[in-house]
Specification:
Belongs to the FMN-dependent alpha-hydroxy acid dehydrogenase family. InterPro entries: Aldolase_TIM, Alpha-hydoxy_acid_DH_FMN, FMN-dep_DH, FMN_HAD, FMN_hydac_DH_AS. By secondary structure, this protein is an alpha/beta fold. The chain has one domain: TIM Barrel, CATH 3.20.20. It is 44% helix and 10% strand. The chain is built from 15 helices and 10 strands. The strands form 2 sheets. An 8-stranded parallel β-sheet has the order 3-10-9-8-7-6-5-4. β7, α12 and β8 form a beta-alpha-beta unit. α4 packs parallel to α5 and α12 packs across α13. The chain is globular and about 60 Å long. The chain starts with a helix and ends in an 11-residue tail after the last helix. The structure holds ligand FNR. The site of ligand FNR has 23 residues, from α2.
């Protein structure tokens, strides 16, 4: 029975070749940061109130003028097409069904226009990695034309984290199947058949969200995460100019960086350590959240991700000042385990758990959680 995120994780492990599961599940160095993300959530408690009217529960929040049915969204994750062909379209459609936003990674296997077309009525945000500024500029313009509502600049990958499982598995981009990878794929006939049936398998089709498809040097730059490390606060202005909508920074943890973000006209922050995939020595995101919230002083919304595994974790993040959270791996486990139905099931699990937590806390609206 698949009842929680960990159940879906175990099922995903069975459903995927090892190099794919390890890519999703893995973290940097010793996995200490990934572990802290969950341990610090577990160590937090919520103080319930009793005898309050919870006969009606309202989980909606409004973000940049748009209603979300529940206070969580889909975090941007690269190479979702490795899990299932068209993974990003499946995630985007599920998010639209659930009335929550989907963030598309720069490292998507699908052109951003195709993902938008898969759920034209949904809320979609575009995540940006800046490798080459002209390419970033083109992605931004395409995202604007396609109708993405917000731009998320990820700032915690100046260099790729040290993912030793990927190294051991010989998993790198551009994708070159090693004998070990070929063996792992072949021993998963369902995964291999699905990829084969999809025409050009997604892993052979790394398009950088559709940008310059086929440019091997670009693919190599992306996957080696050869970021433009000369991008600093003072040069952020060019992005601000080319994107008129909400511009968010994802992957900061320091309250002083939060203050600088407000000063530089950023519209929202996602406190995150990339699910423990970057700096293994980083604090958990939930630990870093309160100082960032204090530094921002309500001027822009603060979101968080990294380690959210239960509806009660969402309540804890909101109690500590988050507007909403983003889910990373749990939705990928759902996608791996059962495709579209699996994503729906994981989203429902988080919503149901949040509602139950709210009732147990005596909170009938999301705003009531701030006092928990
Ligand atoms: C990520 N993440 C990520 N973030 C980003 O800004 N761009 C990206 O391309 C990716 N790619 C990516 C791939 C995979 C497989 C994972 C697991 C994560 C980070 C992601 O947006 C988010 O910060 C974390 O996943 C949150 O942590 P949890 O919920 O997975 O613990």
């Amino acid at each position: 029975m698949l009842l929680n995120a960990e159940d879906f994780r175990c099922q995903a492990r069975r459903a995927l070749p090892r190099f794919v599961f390890d890519y999703i599940d893995g973290a940097a160095d010793d996995g200490a940061c990934r572990q802290r993300n969950q341990a610090d959530f577990a160590a937090l408690t919520l103080l319930p109130r009793v005898l309050r009217d919870t006969s009606q529960i309202d989980t909606t929040v409004t973000v940049f003028g748009s209603p979300w049915s529940v206070p969580f969204g889909v975090a941007p994750t690269g190479l979702n097409g490795l899990i299932r062909p068209g993974g990003d379209a499946l995630l985007a459609a599920a998010a639209a069904r659930a009335g929550i936003p989907f963030a598309l990674s720069t490292a998507s296997n699908m052109p951003l226009e195709a993902v938008r077309a898969a759920a034209p009525e949904g809320l979609q945000w575009m995540q940006l990695y800046v490798m080459h500024r002209e390419m970033a500029e083109r992605i931004v313009q395409r995202a604007r034309r396609a109708g993405y509502q917000a731009l998320v600049l990820t700032v915690d990958v100046p260099v790729s984290g040290n993912r030793e499982l990927d190294l051991r598995n010989g998993f790198r981009m551009p994708f070159k199947p090693t004998p070990q990878i070929a063996w792992e794929a072949l021993t998963h006939p369902r995964w291999s058949l699905r990829m084969a049936r999809s025409g050009t398998p997604d892993f052979a089709n790394l398009t950088v969200a559709g940008e310059d498809a086929g440019s091997a040097s670009l693919q190599a730059a992306l996957m080696a995460r050869a970021m433009d490390r000369s991008l600093v606060w003072e040069t952020l202005g060019w992005l601000r100019k080319s994107w008129p909508g909400p511009l968010l920074l994802k992957g900061l943890l320091h309250p002083e960086d939060a203050r600088l973000a407000v000063e530089h006209g950023i519209d929202g922050l996602i406190v995150s350590n990339h699910g423990g995939r970057q700096l293994d020595a980083a604090p958990s995101a939930i630990h870093a959240l309160p100082a960032v919230v204090a530094s921002v002083q309500g001027r822009i919304p603060v979101f968080m991700d990294s380690g959210v595994r239960r509806g009660s974790d969402i309540a804890k993040a909101i109690a500590l000042g988050a507007k909403a959270v983003f889910l990373g791996r749990p939705l990928l486990y759902g996608l791996a385990a059962q495709g579209a139905a699996g994503i729906d099931a994981v989203m429902k699990q988080f919503s149901d758990e949040l509602v139950r937590t709210m009732i147990l806390l005596g909170a009938s609206r999301i705003a009531d959680l701030s006092a928990a």
